[in-house]
Amino acid sequence: MVEDHDPLAWLGALLMTAYEVLGKLMGRLPVPISLPIPEGPDGPDAVEAITRARAALRDQPMDDITRSMIDRMCLEWLTVLDLGAMVRLAGAEEWRLEAMSYGINRCFALAEVVGPRLEE
Q: Considering the entire predicted model, what is its pTM?
């Protein structure tokens, strides 16, 4: 028997994992940036931390391509978070959930490229 699951809760858990991955990458920057452990996927502390990290990225002594990819990861994360709020307000339309999933996938795909670039 297939159990019902809450797709928004599942996507929220993936979003938190993406936040953790982003935090690990930020900690490996030439000038490490720390992301605090948020209270939850929609906690304002996470949004503030990502916003501050995006601003701090501008001053990192690193190549523009890697900086841009990390910035895109931050934007994807924030966009997925906003889509989650829209799901709660306007409903869990299939396309919204799909867009959230694709945004999270883009975050992880960027992380796979950024990780090795930070080791160079």
A: 0.91
